[in-house]
Design goal:
Radius of gyration: 19 Å
Number of domains: 2
CATH architecture of the largest domain: 3-Layer(aba) Sandwich
Number of strands: 15
Strand content: 25-35%
Order of helices and strands: EHEHEHEHEEHHEHEEEEHEEEEH
Helix content: 10-25%
Mean pLDDT: 86
Largest sheet: 8 strands, parallel
Number of helices: 9
CATH topology of the largest domain: Rossmann fold
Structural class: alpha/beta
Length: 335
């Protein structure tokens, strides 16, 4: 009988550091092993896979855009995994759902025929930002509770940015959770111990969600062939109470870095509670940068990607944002 492939499912809300954690694991991957990553982004403009490619060029990456991978349809996820198994024959698979991903639904899909005969599903690893995880508004979100509920390993991410008092509160809350977690720990810079990938699944129980959540996603299609300088293609995706707008810009568009910082930073277009996540890759001068914003934190760092510029913005459904005006302001950042 063919040996099953170790597979780890990551979960966590927007901005908790899932991509950073997987990128860190890739940087420490044993040289003799072949890994594959299945990445699911909320919108139709993928950015996370670019981050992965920047950290490990020898890893096979497959993406499923447009919402929760178990909601957009069973076929894309199963086909993506089947393709990965046939193309790469990996020694290990890592799966990163969108921040709105329902781990119970994804876990169920992975345990259905024929994937259950091919994959050895390990512990579900959930990351939570200890600065926000105990916020009453977050605690009321069903998706957040679903992610926490199904986790075998619960990790306080970005622990270098939290006070010792708040970290102690997080641990106290986490230790009171039922079912109890296999491991509760904290990390900085995404440095999850490699050995966590070999822990087995031990929590089995129902999700907070019924199956009717699978049918509530809508999106518009990117028109890549129509992209030209200062004329990007835009796609809107709507699901689970959130709206994502993604843009792909021409490779010839060169952005002003300070303009982007003013436009997309804490004092720009998106302030307060009118957005959830901003993530993009932009050509600035002779190079490209990765721009990442969650709450008031803006991170900008170099990246080796060179194909085009792209941006994904995720907002709550009730936010009063004009995508036309947003696009106009972003285009003003082009030199």
């Amino acid at each position: 009988m063919k040996e099953k492939i170790p597979t780890t499912l990551f979960s966590g809300f927007f901005g908790v550091g899932k991509t950073t954690a997987i990128a860190s694991l890739l940087s420490r991957k044993p040289d003799e092993e072949k890994w594959a990553i299945l990445v699911n982004e909320f919108g139709n403009v993928p950015v996370d896979q670019i981050v992965f490619k920047d950290n490990a060029s020898d890893v096979l990456i497959r993406e499923i855009p447009g919402g929760c991978m178990c909601c957009v349809a069973n076929i894309p996820m199963k086909k993506a995994i089947t393709d990965v198994l046939s193309l790469a024959k990996p020694d290990r698979i890592l799966i990163e759902p969108t921040g709105l991903g329902h781990p119970a639904g994804i876990f169920d899909e992975l345990n259905e025929d024929p994937l259950d005969k091919q994959l050895d599903i390990g512990s579900i690893i959930c990351l939570a930002d200890p600065r926000f995880a105990l916020d009453p508004r977050i605690q009321k979100v069903d998706i957040f509770n679903d992610q926490i509920n199904l986790a075998d390993i619960l990790i306080a991410s970005k622990s270098d940015l939290v006070s010792s008092k708040d970290l102690k509160k997080f641990y106290s809350w986490a230790h009171d959770l039922f079912p109890p977690k296999l491991i509760i720990s904290n990390i900085s810079n995404g440095n999850i111990p490699l050995e966590y990938l070999d822990n087995k699944k031990h929590i089995v129980h129902d999700s907070f969600f019924s199956n009717d959540h699978k049918n509530h996603a809508s999106s518009t299609t990117l028109e890549i062939e129509k992209i030209s300088p200062r004329r990007p293609s835009r796609s809107i995706n709507e699901s689970a109470g959130y709206i994502g707008s993604g843009w792909i810009f021409s490779k010839k568009d060169i952005f002003d870095l300070e303009g982007l910082r003013r436009c997309l930073g804490p004092f720009g277009l998106f302030q307060g509670n009118n957005f959830e996540r901003i993530k993009g890759v932009f050509r600035v001068g002779q190079g490209w940068v990765l721009l990442d914003r969650i709450n008031g934190e803006l991170s900008i760092k170099p990246i080796t990607y060179r194909r085009d510029s792209r941006l994904e913005v995720i907002i709550p459904q009730n936010s009063k944002i004009s995508w036309d005006q947003t696009e106009k302001k972003i285009l003003e950042c082009i030199n």
